[in-house]
Amino acid sequence: MSLAEDGSFEIAAGSRRIRADQVIVATGAFREPRVPAIADSLDASIRQLHSTEYRNPSQLRDGPVLVVGLSHSGADIAVELSQTRPTYLSGTAAGQFPINVTDTKRSLVGWLVVRFLATRVFTLGTPIGRRMAPHIRKGGAPLLRVRSGDLQAAGVIRYDARATGVADGKPMLADGRVLDVANVLWCTGFWSDYSWIRPPIKVDEDGWPVQYRGVTDVPGLYFMGVLFQYSFTSMLIRGVGRDAEYVADRIAERAAGGARVPGAVAVSA
């Protein structure tokens, strides 16, 4: 996608070319799997998968497994794998939800409180939300379905130290511990790639577009589905509607302002 001299956008879709006055980039928050560079140095006999590739334990070799990354995917996968093999989990959790969200009978009131916090308090409009956003965008979402007690009960062996190196072809943690495993599951999140937008847009240190509630400093360019776009729930059904309404209002305002009438909008997804 490129910006034309008249301020409109030109989007290439295969052999097609689309011109639009306003564009919403809705390509999703989880696009390019992030795998640490140390993966290339592990012994070739170690089976490696990113969480996006994992389906069930049968994909792995017999023997212990190291799950790298302690957020939703890492916790969920570690509990499942612990039923069939020794399972190590590397990483530090960014806290956990105070209630068991799967126990609907006992946690209804607590869930309503959490929903209020996630939609009204944990937002870019509050100091606590602004402090939280960078951590969430780095993949530090608090444990939700599977929490610390569940990991312990399942027999998952946890290490707070991150996997940062390789020794004799085996993964090594930041504390110097070397793990003799047959498998490594990378639950290490995703990269965001907006290199297809020209001229390049502003991104923060983690690769997310610089925007506020989906609005960028490029007139007519908007984003939807950015992690913590406005609140903790921006990546969920619960919050995306509010984000979409805000962006739609900004689009309507710009079109009504006469910048370019009638103000066509293209959606890239």
| Fraction in helix | 10-25%
Structural class: alpha/beta
Question: What best-fitting shape do the alpha-carbon axes yield?
Answer: globular
- Which strand order do you get reading across the main beta sheet? 6-12-7-8-9
Beta fraction: 15-25%
Overall average pLDDT: 87
CATH superfamily of the largest domain: FAD/NAD(P)-binding domain
Distance between termini?
13 Å
Count the domains: 2
CATH topology of the largest domain: FAD/NAD(P)-binding domain
Largest sheet data? 5 strands, parallel
User: What are the segments in which pLDDT stays under 50 over at least 5 consecutive residues?
Assistant: 260-265
Number of strands: 15
Describe what you observe in this structure.
By secondary structure, this protein is an alpha/beta fold. The protein folds into 2 domains: 104 residues, no CATH class; 114 residues, 3-Layer(bba) Sandwich (FAD/NAD(P)-binding domain), CATH 3.50.50.60. 25% of the residues lie in helices and 20% in strands. It contains 5 helices and 15 strands. The strands form 5 sheets. A 5-stranded parallel beta sheet has the order 6-12-7-8-9, with helices on one face. The protein has a 3-stranded antiparallel beta sheet with strand order 1-2-3, with no helix packed on it. It has a 3-stranded parallel beta sheet with strand order 14-4-15, with no helix packed on it. It is globular. The relative contact order is 0.22. About 2% of the residues have low confidence.
